[in-house]
Design brief:
The complex is a heterodimer of chains A (120) and B (114). In chain A, 0% of the residues lie in helices and 51% in strands. Chain A has 120 residues and is mostly beta strands. Chain A is globular and about 40 Å long. Chain B has no helices and 11 strands. In chain B, the strands form 2 sheets. In chain B, strands 2, 4, 5, 6, 9, 10 and 11 form a 7-stranded mixed sheet that branches. In chain B, strands 1-3-8-7 form a 4-stranded antiparallel sheet, with no helix packed on it. The relative contact order of chain B is 0.33. The chains are: A mainly beta (120), B mainly beta (114).
Chain lengths: 120, 114
């Protein structure tokens, strides 16, 4: 079963409008972290925002905010006031424990991504 | 502060050859992870190193191996290359602090196997 599901292969938004990119996750861990990354056509992965499972408030980083609904296991990314430079692939990822027991070891599991296109 | 660097950026090899990719993490970061990205499989975790020890590994064959040096620089090796190994290989480093562990990625090495 997929651990990270991004149901929107592609999204379109008009410049200056807000857009929400969906992400649902599956884990039995009580402690986990959720991340969003942006990947422009150049290929580099750019960290956008982080939400810890015990964080009571939704994370915000400038124009990015994370709508975290723990009971629903969803962690949607909201981009306000879209800009042309926001056109890129967006990945949701979850930190989960690695195969060694104990210690702070982990790996990131990524969703398939959502291709966002911002139209002028 | 310099970001994560990866060399080379582009590489063309033929089937059966082997390849070594290099990654220099952000100064002070001791954890280095490697990922393979392909159009079909997406981003897949290869392995993670911390203080020269492999802490985690993904589901890849033994042809894929890595190591980390005392200065935290890491190398990844793929032996007996197959066509399906063509991919973007991304390296990421993280500073393990207060459980956040966000990973910062390098620009990647695009490997083409002919």
């Amino acid at each position: 079963a997929q651990k990270i599901t991004q149901t929107q292969p592609g999204m379109f938004v008009q410049e200056k409008e807000a857009v929400t990119l969906d992400c649902t996750y599956d884990t039995s861990d009580q402690s986990y972290g959720l991340f969003w990354y942006k990947q422009p056509s150049s290929g580099e992965m750019i960290f956008l925002i982080y939400q810890g499972s015990y964080d009571e408030q939704n994370a915000t980083e400038g124009r990015y905010s994370l709508n975290f609904q723990k009971a629903r296991k969803s962690a949607n990314l909201v981009i306000s006031a879209s800009q042309l430079g926001d056109s890129a692939m967006y990945f949701c990822a979850m930190r989960e424990r690695g195969w060694r027991s104990g210690g702070s070891n982990y790996k990131l599991t990524f969703g398939k991504g959502t291709l966002l296109t911002v139209n002028p | 502060k310099a970001g994560v660097t990866q060399t080379p950026r582009y590489l063309i090899k033929t089937r059966g050859q082997q390849v070594t990719l290099s990654c220099s993490p952000i100064s002070g970061h001791r954890s280095v992870s490697w990922y393979q990205q392909t159009p079909g499989q997406g981003l897949q975790f290869l392995f993670e190193y911390f203080s020269e020890t492999q802490r985690n590994k993904g589901n890849f064959p033994g042809r894929f191996s890595g190591r980390q040096f005392s200065n935290s620089r890491s190398e990844m090796n793929v032996s007996t290359l197959e066509l399906g190994d063509s991919a973007l290989y991304l390296c990421a480093s993280s500073l393990e602090y207060q459980g956040r562990n966000e990973q910062f990625f390098g620009p990647g090495t695009r490997l083409t196997v002919l």
